[in-house]
Amino acid sequence: FGSSLCCCASGMWRRGPAALVGSTASRCFVDARLCVHASRSSLATATEASDLPYIPGRKPQRVKREPKQLSELNVGFVGWGAMAQAVSLGMLRAGLTDPSRMAAFDVVPEIIAAAESEGLAVKSSNQELVKWSDVVVVAVKPQVIGKVLRDMSDVWTDNKLLVSICAGVTTDTYVRGLERSVTPKVVRVMPNTPCLVAEAASAYAGNKACQEWELDLVHDIFDAVGNATHRVPEYLLNTVTAVSGSGPAYVYMLINALSDAGVHGGLPRSVALSLATQTVLGSAKMVQQSGQHPMVLKEAVTSPAGTTIAAVRALENRGFNGAIIEAVETARVRAEELSEEPDFLFDLVARAAIARHEVGHQAS
Predict the structure, then answer these.
(1) Residue ranges of the alpha helices (H) in 96-144?
(2) Where residue 142 falls among pLDDT bands split at 50, 70, 90?
(3) Beta strands in 165-223 (DSSP E)
(4) Three-class DSSP labels, 65-95
(5) Distance CA 308, CA 297 (A)
(6) Entry pTM
(7) CA 221 to each of CA 75, 94, 111, 137, 255: distance values in angstroms, whole numbers, following the listed order
(8) Where are the beta strands (DSSP E) in the chain?
């Protein structure tokens, strides 16, 4: 404002317009307006700056990975025994992928030849298979999983998905065995042997590293070989093992018992076995397709004072339901023991072999 003092500075403005005289008042009024405007601008700028929240620099947007179809991925089988064959050929029958997208490695030459005859690529080692694969299906005996993981760990990369159908081997076992700084993506699956005829009952659980679309891929794989595929928490897989994993053995025993009863009643073995087998198959389909509870369907067969209720009474007297429940619970407990110590049986066999070798050496 030049050399003149504004009325604000001199205190005149605070005393009101009456204190302003002539041109001095006019000039002072104009200067004052400029002064007040400048003061307010400075104050507003400072106030606005202090009121604004601190906004950090924007983080780079994370690129979301698009889900892939199974047909876009290479699927490799470490071990191509009966279960792996059923799963892989089921995928092909369902049109989920092409043989050019599948490969296998096995230590048995005859199995390798069978894989080649089905159009699968054959790899010379676990390492070569893992390098080639996007999805690695581990289908070996639990007793050799340690060696397999040592082979795989050197060539494993974080973008791969491991699918295990090894009974009793937990996802944590694979995570520890692969020894990666980033947690590997592992899905543990419990199918059962009817997958060999595309009638599997399967359950699966993935660790936290897995994305939803990867779990969906696993679901599709096992849905191709059965009509009952379920995602469950991993701690329930031991119960799944006891119910559906071991379950076929219980059903085979039931079929055999029904067949024996038929023979006892005078039927030829072939007729008795055919009737027993179809009875179990048809009854299972009734449960699946009707959506009704088994006990409701049982009541439909059980007439008052008839043959069925007499037979049901005999089964109840001998603890039929309790025996099945106890069998399943025993299998579940055993599955938990094997999950904690999967090499238990292998160790017993190995020790027995060493003992036989030592006895033979001493005899010689």
Answers:
(1) 109-117, 126-132
(2) confident
(3) 185-190, 200-206
(4) CCCCCHHHCCEEEECCCHHHHHHHHHHHHCC
(5) 13
(6) 0.74
(7) 11, 9, 21, 11, 30
(8) 75-78, 102-105, 121-122, 135-138, 161-164, 185-190, 200-206, 226-231
